[in-house]
Design a protein that fits this description.
By secondary structure, the protein is α+β, with helices and mostly antiparallel strands. The chain has 3 domains: 226 residues, Substrate Binding Domain Of Dnak, Chain:A, Domain 2, CATH 1.20.1270; 125 residues, Mannose-Binding Protein A, Chain A, CATH 3.10.100; 132 residues, Roll (Mannose-Binding Protein A, Chain A), CATH 3.10.100.10. It has 12 helices and 18 strands. The strands form 4 sheets. Strands 11, 12, 13, 14, 15, 16, 17 and 18 form an 8-stranded mixed sheet that branches. Strands 2-3-9-4 form a 4-stranded antiparallel sheet, covered by helices on one side. A hairpin with an 8-residue loop joins strand 7 and strand 8. It is flat.
């Protein structure tokens, strides 16, 4: 029995030895053969009747060993499944982190792209805004200059157009205006006339004032040291006691020194402070710039200086502010664009991986127990599991750090994006306002151009006729306004005028015989004319027949309406006469041009209708 137990232990050991993983079947073959020989010898010595129970016992031991082996395989399989599941979890977490990083990065790139587009639009809007502002400045200057000129013209009773705006070239209406009349000197926004200094040209103060007012001017009013220096530099003196009359006197009930325009003294350059009643001021030829004026009797004889407003306003232009604004715009553009890149991940995976590569089975063990083999097999799996968990933690930390960093950048980009959006909306609103303002300025400029162009058609513009009390109206007194034209229906007592005489009369008022352009205008004319004398008399039109039997208006356009009377009223001729009291589309009669009739003049309005 003792031997059998030993054999059982040996057989168990032998069975375990052949089934252990990682142990070669060629290890220690001699020892196995010895054990097998001992067993075989003992069995031969036994009785034949005892062989069967021994075999059954061996089979029992083998079954037990087989059962333990299966349990061990089951445990190893479960551990392998657990390790495989952890690997999948780690891989899935890594993929999820990569997806999150990709998504956040893509969103950051999208925001950066949108911000770049808005920045580009912002720059374009800013540039457009600057263009509109410059355009507004130009339109404002043009409007103010035209307004200045028209206001200067309205200061006259009769503005001498040919004197201020002589004709240039062969065209009738090609006139070039100048700020001052010939012989006058411009300084800043005024014109100055220095009278002759010879003895026979001198006058008393009152006569000098009258001479200035005949030219729609006044004796000079000095309101700055620069103006006084300008006057001193343009005056000629025959002696140190001679001077030029200026528009300053104390000839008033309160004996106070006042300028001829009623204003008080703002700057003074008196030679002496001694007061004299009924005195007038002279500008002297004196070395001291602060002692240029003298108080003398107004009945002395001296040359004088006239001053009036320049017809054309000087153009003062300064581009310094505009250039600075453009520089600010460019500086702003350089600040808008930002190069933000997501932080790069450190390449730690390969290093970590290189330290956890499983080592191959280099050790060879002899007989070991089942518990020792199980522990030895579980150690590499535990290390792999720990490494997987470590990699997962590192990836999570890196992902969280990257997401936080990108989120900070995205928040900053979002704030910049909102600011740019607000700025663009403000720029769009400002652009609309500037466009509306420029449209109004353009309209005002065109209206002033229209008015000035109309004035320049005259040789002498009758200011009082068009602008009584300096309040202008579209047409002068006695004319009728219709659409954009003014009409004069000549209804004076006989003798009336021939066709040529009628046209000359119209042209003397910067107009011409009427040109009918539309049925509406023909109806308007018919409604404002009445029958007079007999059925053969009417109103001359600006329509005449040429030698080739074609009818042309005075503006060289061919007649297209043809409102001719079907029957003949009398002697025919080459000039068109409108017979009142008939249907408006059947009222024109070809009459002799020497016949005396009333007529209709047509001219432009002074103020362009909106």
């Amino acid at each position: 029995m003792i031997k059998v137990k030993i054999m059982e232990e040996e057989l168990n050991y032998v069975a375990l030895t052949f089934k252990t993983q990682g142990t070669s079947t060629h290890e220690k073959p001699n020892e196995m053969e010895v054990i097998y020989d001992v067993v075989k010898t003992e069995e031969q010595e036994r009785n034949t009747s005892s062989v069967v129970p021994e075999k059954q016992k061996m089979e029992l031991i083998y079954d037990v060993v087989k059962t333990e082996e299966q349990e061990r395989k089951t445990k190893n399989g479960k551990k392998a499944q657990l390790c495989t599941g952890l690997h999948l979890v780690a891989a899935g977490s890594g993929i999820l982190c990569v997806i999150l990083l990709f998504g956040v990065t893509a969103l950051g790139i999208y925001l950066n792209t949108v911000m770049s587009e808005l920045s580009s639009e912002n720059i374009k809007l800013t540039g457009r805004e600057r263009q509109l502002e410059r355009k507004a400045e130009e339109l404002t200057r043009e409007r103010d200059r035209l307004n200045w000129t028209i206001e200067a013209i309205l200061e006259y009773d009769n503005f001498r157009v040919n004197a201020y705006c002589p004709q240039k070239g062969e065209k009738i209406h090609s006139k070039m205006c100048k700020p001052c009349l010939d012989g006058w000197v411009q300084f800043q926004s005024n014109c100055y006339l220095f009278s002759k200094a010879d003895y026979y040209s001198r006058k008393v103060w009152k006569k000098g004032l009258d001479e200035c007012r005949q030219t729609n001017a006044n004796l000079v009013v000095i309101d700055s040291q620069e103006e006084q220096e300008f006057i001193s530099n343009h005056t000629i003196y025959s002696s140190e006691y001679q001077g030029y009359w200026i528009g300053l006197s104390n000839k008033n009930p309160v004996n106070t020194w006042m300028w001829v325009d009623g204003s008080n003294i703002t700057v003074s350059f008196w030679k002496t402070e001694e007061d004299r009643k009924d005195s007038c001021a002279l500008s002297l030829n004196h070395a001291d710039s602060l002692a240029k004026w003298d108080k003398v009797t107004c009945d002395s004889w001296n040359p004088w200086i006239c001053e009036t407003r320049a017809v054309i306003k000087p153009d003062y232009k300064n581009n310094t502010l505009l250039l600075l604004m453009m520089e600010e715009e460019l500086n702003y553009a350089t600040v808008v664009f930002k190069d933000t890149k997501p932080p790069q991940e450190k390449n730690e995976d390969s290093t970590i991986y290189s330290t956890i590569k499983p080592e191959g089975p280099t050790r060879t063990s002899t007989r070991t127990s089942p518990t020792a083999d199980s522990k030895a097999a579980a150690q590499p799996q535990s290390r792999v599991l720990a490494v997987c968990l470590g990699i997962l933690c590192i990836l999570l930390v890196l992902s969280i750090s990257a997401i936080i960093s990108i989120s900070v950048v995205m928040n900053r980009q979002t704030a910049d994006l909102n600011n740019l959006t607000v700025q663009n909306q403000q720029l769009i609103a400002h652009r609309s306002m500037l466009e509306k303002q420029n449209a109004e300025l353009s309209r005002d400029r065109d209206n002033y151009n229209w008015t000035l162009g109309f004035i320049l058609q005259f040789n002498t513009f009758p200011v009082n006729a068009y602008c009584p009390q300096r309040k202008c109206q579209p047409c002068q007194g006695g004319w009728i306004w219709f659409q954009e034209k003014c009409y004069l229906f000549y209804n004076e007592i006989p003798p009336w005028k021939t066709w040529d005489q009628s046209r000359q009369y119209c042209q003397s008022t910067a107009a011409d015989l009427v040109v009918v352009d539309s049925p509406q205008e023909q109806e308007f004319i018919s409604n404002n004319t009445e029958k007079y004398f007999d059925k053969f008399h009417g109103f001359w039109l600006g329509l005449r027949e040429t030698s080739d039997k074609n009818w042309f208006w005075v503006d060289q356009r061919n007649d297209t309406l043809g409102y001719w009377i079907k029957e003949s009223l009398g002697t025919t001729g080459p000039c068109a006469l409108m017979i009142p009291g008939r249907n408006f589309n059947d009222s024109w009669d070809p009459a002799a041009c020497i016949m005396l009739n009333k007529f209709i003049c047509e001219g432009q309005v002074l103020i362009k209708p909106n």
